[in-house]
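Run folding on both entries below.
>entry_1
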Amino acid sequence: VCLRRPAVRLEFDAVTTTRVRVAALDEAAIAWYVATGEPRDKAGAYAVQGLFGAFVRGVEGSVTGVIGLPLDETLALLRRAGYPLPWEAR
């Protein structure tokens, strides 16, 4: 995640790593999943929040990072850049 605020010339970035443990899939499970069409529009051909979630055995790290955007890290960057978060007291 990278956040730039050109008017102030600040640049922050964050890196997060997540490991997803997946069950061993036999040919029938793979064929079923491919036939659903779900893998066609997914980065890495799966989504933990979709049908493939049935095969996910565990996630270590940022679940939201796997889904698409690591929210914890993104919110921390926004705070550092001075953006107020709507639920925090000012």
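>entry_2
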Amino acid sequence: MAKEQWRSGLGFVLAAAGSAVGLGNLWGFAYRASQGGGGAFLLLYVVIVLLVCLPVLVAEMVLGRSTGQSPLLAPVAAAGRRWQPMGWLFVLAASGILAFYAVLMGWTGATLVQTLTQGLPADIASAEAFFAGLSGGRSALIGQLLSLVATAAVVAAGVRGGIERLSRWGLPLLFVLLIGLAVWAAGLDGASEGYRTFLLRWDNSQLQDPTTIRNAFTQAFFSIGTGIGCILAYSAYLNREARLPREAVAVVGMDTAVGIVAGMVTFPVVMSFGLQEVISGSTLGTIFIALPTGLASLGAAGQLVAVLFFALALIAALTSAVSLLEVPVACLIDRLGWPRQRAVWACTALIFVAGLPSAMSLDALGWMDSVFGGLLLILGGLLLSLLLGWVLPERFNKDLSASGTTPAVQMLLLVMLRWVAPPVVALGLVFSVLDLVKA
């Protein structure tokens, strides 16, 4: 059976950008910027994205396209049996992230329905009571299940009929909603103060502050999402003509734009509703408790904004969830020869079971986030930079040359992949291990 391919390069770029753009873009940027840094945080974020994330992203694309294999088999096809653990790492990381991500997606969908049908909470106490019911028990399980079923339905429809179709309408709609919210937020009383406090404040000392550096690294690396096999799986469906550096720049550009524009929404909201302390203390608390309560003070307009925000968040969550599910599905199709439908529903059932602890316990959810969305993701990025930068540099250059990438660009990417990415990503891995042990 012939392997599916993207209908166009734009379809791949939108799908890959959808994979990168998730719930972390919409509030993680503001959350980490609020820890300190302001303009310095933004500068460090952009530098890390360009010097580290971009070359690793291109490396992941090269590995997927040059082998045409799933994330499980691609490392073996490229470098032999000793790299098989890397393939299993991709499957484990993507499945583990989706297991708890579906829970967050369920919370988002439930909040959207609640806002549409019953309006916003009257006060913080009401919002906290709603979130307490949302984040445990039967409602959390139902939300998790419905989220996985929706994700599975898209992936089961195939690369063109499901994933590419979702990305072609989902990403443009996401951008339209986000820009609309940014325009609305610019008119809030605290807008200028929000931009000045979080985004435009400059302090040279923050460039050497360990917390600011760690936050910028975390936001950049996790936002792009390379190292978990999603982009690798998508790249296996690419044709040989696509210029990967150009596609990677487009993906990184879209993802970064969403983070910055989301900041243009959240910073004014934070100042206007006096949420400075809440956002610094808890991302989840801000999204599901403080934000709805603050918007309630605006009456019907606040309810409309809340509906748009949570609709935006749900679209972002779905495009990311689809890419995560494609990783184990592609592996079952390649390894066992299963039809797509069978592979999709088998993976969905297993991931639902694996996510049960995160649906029932916030502590379990936090632990899974740290291990699968932190430790394993960074380890995957490190292995990618070592494999394509040091073990298979000829494959890296050959694949890029075949699609018309100039020798100068190839050399620049390879230098960053060999000498810049490994030490920086290794440093991020050390930070993650220390944070996990300390927790």
